[in-house]
């Protein structure tokens, strides 16, 4: 059976796996973005706190993904839970680091001007600092998403959702007629998803970043 014949015969399952893969990455990136930006906001004013946040999230990223999921299984069980926890933790570093860099890069004169017209600290954060720091934050989100696309395939080890199941089935049946087709379909699906997500981030950047900031 050729690759395209295999895809045609398994298109329903492949579409389901693709949707689950994209959904898992998207939801985990939302969580990682909220947590990462919150950590950045909480630590960017202090050198040691920012360094601690960056070092901690960087340490998490050094843990092999298979080991991370293996360690989580006794705690949260199989399926979606270890996938969500692992992907969210892995997605933190680029977001935290870029949030800190972006917030520290805001011109202090603009913050002082906002303070001078009576803006509260919260208003300055949400109306001045975060909008100006958004371009590097978005870059961190893009980098994290590309990483999670590949890491999410390991979720199949813990009976998680996504295209990793196709890859693992192919590896487990190496030597069979469709083993290569299974691995290839899962891999190409992840590559296509990564490209689509990145294109979506480019569009989001064009819609949310003003021309003055982009220049």
Automatic annotation (TrEMBL):
The chain crosses the membrane at residues 24-44, 51-73, 79-96, 143-163, 183-204. It is found in: Cell membrane; Membrane. Residues 18-201 form the ABC transmembrane type-1 domain. CDD domains: TM_PBP2. Gene3D superfamilies: MetI-like. Its main location: membrane. InterPro entries: ABC_transp_perm/SBD, MetI-like, MetI-like_sf. Keywords: Membrane, Transmembrane, Transmembrane helix, Transport. It is a multi-pass membrane protein. It holds the Pfam family BPD_transp_1. Belongs to the binding-protein-dependent transport system permease family. This is ABC transporter permease. It comes from Streptomyces lunalinharesii.
